[in-house]
Amino acid sequence: MEIGTNPDYDQAFTAALDWWREAGVDSAFVDTPRSWLPEPEEPKGPAAKAQGTRQLAPAAEPVAPPPLLLPDDLESFRTWWMTAPELDHGGTAGRITPRGSVNPALMVLATTPEGGDRDQLLSGPEGHMLDAFLHSAGLNEADVYRASVLPCHSPGADWSPEANRVPTEALMRHIALVRPQRLLVLGFVVLPLLGHGSPQGPAVSDLFNHEGSPIPMLAVRRIPAAASQPRWKAALWQAWLDWTA
C-alpha cells in the first residue's frame, strides 16, 4: 500500500483491519502480561535516601471532649438547665425547668417535657395521669420531684449514649443533687444512659448506683396514648406494689 504526502490514516488502519478480518484473525492473545505504562524512574542522590527513610506519620489520637462544668447546688443547676447552650446543641427555646424539693420520697424522670408544656413540667395529659397514680400511691406534691432527661419536647430524639454525652452527665449530676429516696423512670430509652440495659417486660426494678449511693429504681414504659392507658396503669400499679412491698 502506497501512502502519499497527505495520507488518510483512518482509511489505512481500516483497510489493514479488514485484511486480517478476512483472513480469519480478529483477536490477538499472549500469555505474558505486558505493562503499557513506562516504568517509574528510580530516585537518585539525596532524594533516594530521603525516600528510603520516610515513615508514615502516626495516626492522630482521638481528642477527648472538654470536661463539662456543672453546678454544685440544685438551684444553680436549674439555672444552668435553662440557659446552658451545650445542653441542647446551642438552643434554649422551649425548655421547661424541673420542679420539686431536695431529698424527696420519689424522683420521677421523664424522657422529655410534654408537647403542650409551657410553664410547668408534665402539665398535660401524661402529667395528669401521673398525678392520679401518685395520689393513689399516697404521695402528695411535696413528696415528688419531677424532671426530664432532655430540657425541651424532642420527638424523634436520638437516645444512643454516644449522642447524649452532655445530657447524661447532666442527668447524673441532677440525681446526685436531688438525692431522692426512690427513682421512677418513665421510658426504657433512658436506662442505657444510666448504665442499664433495656428490659423486655413492662417494668423492671433495679438499683441506680451513683458515687457509692444505691437508689431503688423502677423503670416502666413511657406514658402511652389514651387507647393503651388501662393496660399501662395496671402494669405500673402492679410493679409499684411489688417494688414498695
UniProtKB/TrEMBL annotation:
Compositional bias of kind Low complexity: 45-62
Taxonomic superkingdom: Bacteria
Xref: Pfam families: UDG
Domain Uracil-DNA glycosylase-like: 99-187
Gene3D superfamilies: Uracil-DNA glycosylase-like domain
Region (Disordered): 33-67
Protein name: Uracil-DNA glycosylase-like domain-containing protein
Species in which this protein is naturally found: Novosphingobium kalidii
Record lineage: Bacteria, Pseudomonadati, Pseudomonadota, Alphaproteobacteria, Sphingomonadales
